[in-house]
Amino acid sequence: MAYLLFQLKKVVKNKLTPICLSILILILGFILFLNLRTAPQFTLQAGAQKEGTYYQTEIAKLKQNLKQQKKNSDLYQETEQDINSNQKIANQDYQIQKAAQAAKWQLAYTLMWQKKQYEKKHLENIADQVDPAQVTETNNKLKFFAYLKDKPLAYESQDMPVTGIQFWLHLNQQYLPYLFTLVALFILTLLLTEPYHQQLDLTRLNPIVNGVKL
């Protein structure tokens, strides 16, 4: 145990250690800066606005197609149903956007939960055409907003968090495994290569005694 502590002290007192720690802190600060810069694009209202714009574009395309179809035909009725469905989702996105902007989180999360329920039912109806990863993501989001609608908190993106435990979880998932690997390599390099000088292992050399020739 004493030998291990001795080796660790050598690492801590090494001149390169403060430099490496400074680099590590700079990397973490840079990641936080990037998250702060991009966080406005990942807010709940920004996501709702983006999806609402997408569905409005789809509605416009469907209305153009509707003009070219015969009334009372099956295709005409299907297109009308698609327009009504997309309009319902677009209206819901607009309500989510307004609720989030007004910081009415419980209402916003309830609307998001309802939306994810609708998405889940839709995916179940076309299960043979859907990627399983998309189903898993929808189920996770459904559980996420089911929790938040009962315990509403100010929304923070899970993709670009900037505060609290969310930020550290994000670091742990995305970056820390690589940083810890580099730190471990640095420590092992100091421990295993420090005895060597000019390709000689100094710990294996015989001591030099005054007046004695070896």
Structure, explained:
The chain has 214 residues and is mainly α. 73% of the residues lie in helices and 2% in strands. The protein is built from eight helices and two strands. It has helices spanning 2-13, 16-38, 44-67, 74-101, 105-125, 132-150, 164-174, 176-193, and strands spanning 196-197, 200-201. Strands 1-2 form a two-stranded antiparallel sheet. Helix 3 (44-67) packs antiparallel against helix 4 (74-101), helix 4 packs antiparallel against helix 5 and helix 5 packs antiparallel against helix 6 (132-150).
Q: Which whole number gives the mean pLDDT?
A: 81
Radius of gyration: 30 Å
How many distinct helices? 8
Question: Alpha-carbon distance between the termini?
Answer: 35 Å
Largest sheet: 2 strands, antiparallel
- Percent strand equals under 5%
Shape: elongated
Class based on secondary structure composition and strand pairing: mainly alpha
Widest sheet: strand order?
1-2
Total DSSP E strands: 2
Q: Which residue ranges are poorly predicted, with pLDDT under 50 across at least 5 consecutive positions?
A: 196-200
The H-and-E topology, N to C, reads as HHHHHHHHEE
Overall helicity? over 70%
Summary, kept brief:
By secondary structure, the chain is mainly alpha-helical. The chain is 73% helix and 2% strand.
How would the blueprint of this fold be written?
Blueprint: H1 2-13, H2 16-38, H3 44-67, H4 74-101, H5 105-125, H6 132-150, H7 164-174, H8 176-193, E1 196-197, E2 200-201
Antiparallel strand pairs: 1-2
Brief descriptors of the model:
two-stranded antiparallel ribbon, 214 residues, mainly alpha
